[in-house]
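anyone seen this seq b4? input:
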Amino acid sequence: MSFLLDTDIVIYRLNEVQAASDLIDELFHDRVAIGIITYVEVLDGIDRSSNPRLARERFLLT
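predicted toks r here
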């Protein structure tokens, strides 16, 4: 089965919300993806963050 993650879940994961991390970890054995809209929304948030470089690194490692 495949899962498309919503922007909120991705942002919660980046903000280290445990429930979001647990959900993604649980789904990880299946196919997990984000859509282009989510990708752009997250990048916009990264660019507006207080430390864009660190936020971008965390996003790319997630």
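The CA atoms of residues 11 and 17 lie 9 Å apart. The chain has one domain: 2-61. kinda curious what u guys think
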